[in-house]
Structures are given as structure tokens and as C-alpha cells.
Amino acid sequence: xxxxxxxxxxxxxxxxxxxxxxxxxxxxxxxxxxxxxxxxxxxxxxxxxxxxxxxxxxxxxxxxxxxxxxxxxxxxxxxxxxxxxxxxxxxxxxxxxxxxxxxxxxxxxxxxxxxxxxxxxxxxxxxxxxxxxxxxxxxxxxxxxxxxxxxxxxxxxxxxxxxxxxxxxxxxxxxxxxxxxxxxxxxxxxxxxxxxxxxxxxxxxxxxxxxxxxxxxxxxxxxxxxxxxxxxxxxxxxxxxxxxxxxxxxxxxxxxxxxxxxxxxxxxxxxxxxxxxxxxxxxxxxxxxxxxxxxxxxxxxxxxxxxxxxxxxxxxxxxxxxxxxxxxxxxxxxxxxxxxxxxxxxxxxxxxxxxxxxxxxxxxxxxxxxxxxxxxxxx
Length: 379
Fold this sequence. Notes:
The protein is of the alpha/beta class. It has helices at residues 4-13, 20-40, 46-49, 77-81, 86-91, 149-160, 162-167, 179-182, 189-196, 212-226, 245-261, 269-274, 283-286, 299-312, 317-329, 340-350, 353-369, and strands at 54-55, 66-67, 131-134, 139-142, 185-186, 204-209, 228-229, 234-235, 290-294. The chain has one domain.
């Protein structure tokens, strides 16, 4: 068998001559091939985990962002077929960005400036707000979009029928939208009390939150650049802005201020994915009762937090091992982190004081409530 050790031993017998450089180069190439083959055995490493859900390109007519994962969930065929070319995405973001309203942002959203910011703990009625009951573990989980809500929902569905799940050979992704799981979905804490009785008030309340700018960008790339696949079409919810980030930030700020003041009371799919995390899960009443997990797009960071919680609820080792293995190597097709499109828009946002000011004004209380530091320059 040819090995790297054999290769190096042979090289010791070669005499230096005109052919030596060429031979050494060939050896190096062969060695690199062996290394690549060996590293391929661990292809589901953390770094690759971040890249395998979607791919992007900066080349002309190539797709700006495309679903490529193998998850057995909703198909991405419509949004893939109607993909926005990268040169079109760039052309939509060539507009000059306005200057910010002030030169310094010290004291933003405090005192008299609070009127220019979105208020915290506003309860908005939405058909898209879900809670999931896990009666065997006395847990009520509230999902927040763009905080790994699909993964957490899949976990809850598995644990509600752990024996049936493993006996029937189901998969955590792909089977969890069925009627058998939907019966565990409720609209509010009060709704859960109606079904399971006042004991729900003593259950553990769980939710997952995400760094506000990270979550905002994820929602924008998901809804406006990649698009949302439905049964028969791809829809992009962008306030009529397309993939123009400046337009989208301005429209989002205006709408959230209307919702904050009560001028607007209803939300659509896009608003539901973007409005503040403090507006969700009945946090105006139950914030102190929640166990809050902080999301990370890196499974190696996020999953230990999830598993620690599951361990505290005496979830079986079999279930936890399965959840860990699946979550570490698969991601939902909504994932947008670490794509070129995401990197482009993150740079455009963070390099603009004007855009950052509006985003901070939208999510100031998310930063403060959940212990995330304000961006540099806004402390």
C-alpha cells in the first residue's frame, strides 16, 4: 500500500539533478490529494456545516442564492427556478445611502429620543405565532422566526412521541409537519391552559432568541433575495423593494413604528418574520418565566445549549444522540448564514451609519432585554 511514509522514504534515495524539482512538485500534489481524501471523511465539520445549505456566486447571471441542501422538507424548486441573478442584485444596491440623522448616537432611544424608536413588549395578533406543548416534559415552547424555529419544532415533535418516532423509522426533518404533530400546537399560553389545565402555568417556558442584526439580515436574505417557496410558486416579501437593502430598511422602520404606535395592528408573513423578539411569546406578561436559549448559526455552539436544556428535562440519551447527530450535519433550507449574499448585505448594512441607525432603533429593546451588546458607535 502506498503511504505518505513510503513516498518520503523513496525521496531519500533520489539524487539531486535536473528532475528533482519536478519530482518534488509531483510528490506535493499527491500528498495534497491524500490529505483532501482523508479530510473528506469528516465532511460534516462545523465550517462546512455553515456552507452546505445554500450557495452563492458573484458571477454575472449566476443565481444570487440557491437552495442546495438535501433536507426532506419543502422543495426549493420554484425559488431556484426564479432565482435573482447576482448582477441584478448588485444593480439594485448601487444607490447612494443617505447620511444619518445625527453625527453621534450616544443615548439613542433614551429620554426624549425614545419616541423615535420601536417600543418593547407590544403584543401583535398574528396567525403565524406558534407555541408547542410537550406535556410529558411539562414544557411549553414559543417559536420565534429566524431563531432555528424549524429545528426546535422538529425536536418538540419527536419528543411528543419518542417511542412511535423511532419505532416507525421517521426522520426528524420531513415528517414533522404532519397532523400527528400539529395537535401539539397552540396559539398562546392561555390557549395551552384551556387544553391542559392550570398546571401549564407551572411548566417550563422555553424560547430561542438571536442577535438582532444577525436575525434581521437572515430574514431579509430569506424573504427578499432567496424567496419563500409555497406549493405552486416563489414569493418575495419585500415591501416592493426587491433586493434593495436601503429601501427595505426604510420601509421596515416605517411599518414597525406604525405597529409600535398602534396606527397599524395587523402583520403579514414578512412582518411576522421581522418584528422585534420582545413582541413575541407574551413576553409583556411572561418574560421572567422563560428559559431563553441564545441561537448561534454554528451548530457546535448552539447545540450544546439545546442539549443541556433537554438533559435538564430528563430526555433520553437515545433521543439526544439522534438530535445531536442530525442537527450537526443538516440544516433547514431557510438557512442563509455564511453565504456570499449574506456577507455582501451585512457589509453594506454595517458600513452605513444611516442604515444601522434605523436597525438599532427597530431592535434597541431586543439588544437590551436579551443581553446583546449594541453595535460599535451606539453604546
